[in-house]
């Protein structure tokens, strides 16, 4: 199984803003005072377009789909939470915590992929769990080590343990379960998505071990990564707050590997961390300040990787 892909889906926002429904447990979101909603959306579109240009310039196959004004979907820019695409032709649809995020799931996006020559064999639909109040938000909640058959999940209100284990059984992954925390007003609170504090590359892993308060769990996670011969690059909680955990490794022209992150993530890294990462792939960063502030997510959240076979 390949760990990285050349093809990604990205959703261009039309009414991006801070989503009040997700702010209850995403402590990375901020209100940008004094900006009209139209200004926030225009800034987000500008950041999005520049980001897409940079990815395409290095040969990443970016499939851009416009969001629609028919639904109120302020977070549509983060498609990796509702869908994942797998090498065997399976597509997984995930149950979402925020009610207005459930409207992001669009069948026409799957149609577009098929029109572009990707093959969809089967749809695994976990969304009925929403009715019972259980959630698992795609590759935000679960980090897939495709090559080693492991899935990492930091449990939270948006990542239910039983649902995660069901996913692992369906897709043949060994579950690696833990809890990750951040300090909010002096209190330790669960981090809403695993991919904020951890990134899995082919030959490296970026992780904030300080977020894993349980020492046994921390050791277990680090042991798993080292057993799989990944160079572990540790980041701090302050760097997590700058979205340094929210990276993704993708492939460009001639299968060249790139580590994608935001400008704020890159600026938060030390020269040593940058050198460690550059041993594995070239770094590509882009400014996503508005998207990060209002959305509480960053570069990785904006990219839904497509591993589907091509016809």
Automatic annotation (TrEMBL):
It comes from the Bacteria. SUPFAM superfamilies: Pentein. Coiled coil: none annotated. It holds the Pfam family DDAH_eukar. Keywords: Transferase. InterPro entries: Amdntrnsf_FN0238 (IPR014541). GO terms for molecular function: transferase activity. This is Amidinotransferase. It comes from Flavobacterium reichenbachii.
